[in-house]
Each structure stands twice: as C-alpha cells, then as structure tokens.
Amino acid sequence: MLHIAIIGKLPTEPMRPYLRALFDSLEAHGASIRVLGSVYRELTMMGFALPLGATAFERPDSLAGTHFVLSLGGDGTLLEAVTYVGSLQIPILGINMGRLGFLATVPQERVADALDALVRGHYTLDDRSLIRVEADRPLFDGVPFGLNEFSILKRDSSAMIVVHTYIDGEFLNSYWADGLIVSTPTGSTGYSLSCGGPVLLPHTTNFVIAPVCPHNLNVRPLIVPDRSVISFEIEGRANNFLVSLDSRSQPVDATIQLAVSRERFVARLVKVHQANFLSTLRTKLNWGLDERNPAADGR
User: What pTM, to 2 d.p., does this model score?
Assistant: First the structure.
C-alpha cells in the first residue's frame, strides 16, 4: 500500500475540482492518506468529502513510514513541506496550485497523471542541498535548515546595516547594505536572483553570497564552495535586525553569533513528466522569447 501525506495551503473553492481529482486518484490506487491538520479542517468546513480512512496529522514525526509527500500550492508551500520532512528525506512531489512554480512543477490539471507515474515508478528523485544556520540562541522554532536561502536584513526603514562576513574564519568583506543573502543553488532563482545573483544549476556544490542594495556598487555577488562555513557579525545604528530562512523570519539583536553551512541531509524532489531545470528556466523566465517573433522558442 502506498502511504501518502498531503501538505498544502488552505484550500479554496477554485481548487475543489483539482482536489477532487487528487483524492479520487489516491483512493483508486488504494493509498493510505494523511492530510496536514489545517488543510484537513478547512476541507471539512468546505463540506469536501474526504476518502474513507483519510486522517489528519499535526507533527512532523507523524510522517515516519510515508512513501511520498504531496505539496499542494506554489513554491512557498513546498518550502514548508521541506521543513516537515527534514532528515526523513521523504520524496516530495510539488503540485503547482500557485503561479511561478520553479519547484512545484506538476500542473494541477495533471495531478492524476502524476500520481499514476508514482504508482508505476515512472519518476526520478532530484536531491537538493539545504543550508543550515548555527546560532548562539534558538532560532526558527528548532528547524534551522532551509532549501532556498538565509538572509540578514535591516528590520525597518532605518539606515543600512553592516554585515562583517567570514569564510572558514577568514575575513571576506564588510557589506554596507540593506542586507545579505546566502543562497543555495535551488535558491539562486529566488531572492538572490532579484539582487543580481547568478543562476546556479541545482546540483552545483556552491553557495551564492549576494548583498541586498549595497552601498558600494562595485560589490558583487560571490560564489563560494558549500563546504565552507560562512559566519557573520552585524552592526548598525539600530540594534534590531531580521534574520530569515526561506519564508520564516524573526528579529535578533547585534550580539547574536551566526554561521551557515551545508546541511548534512538533502531535500528529495520527485520529477515526473520529463520536467527538467533548463526547460523550467526557459518557461518561467521567458528566456529566448522574442516579442517581434511570437513563433520563436529560443532554440
């Protein structure tokens, strides 16, 4: 029997037909179904008929024994799913009920086909490196890892901050900026990209260090090996700053000691329908398109 866990954003009425197709397909395949508690309760309030035997779960440790996690939403939902899976390394299939979808690559219209591919074994696993945060106090509710990036940011409209940055204990630079991002290859198409960082292929073994709105315009993003330990000291006119790990953030003060490194485990993403990173880049970023020639496809 296939054991499936479902993590998603709160369902809405427009999602109903796609959710119906999802649960009908799971039921047809005889799958055991567990649904994140908040989603389960919202479906119940909507009067949505869940398959017999479907149960709710609240805690990540409830996922032991799960074969696949289905992430229903956009990339943000998949980032949340990674925090639930953690070191269990359960394969995650991203079903795109959002917009851009670099990570959640299965269109909601093809959910039944994707599940059939899982059952038949017609898929591959794509291991993605994670970034881990070490600090001298508890951060991020005890989940100190993320798939995309770690950021240090000024908290409000105050003056820029200074982030003194070290690689393996050796001084790199003092970044005078609105903040600093350390991105994984997966995160290189996110916040880091909007700050001028390069796009890395997913399986490169690097981090990208990218300043946010730097004061010195000759400071550029830097690629460093992900076997490095990158540490920071923060200062500024204000004493409060913001640290962010993917979509989770919290305030800190300048006395905090911070370092990031590569996490010892990975996130396993399921690939079906021959999806690949390069085709996703062309599709999502409109690479190769020419408005003067609508028929051009960039090849």
Answer: 0.90
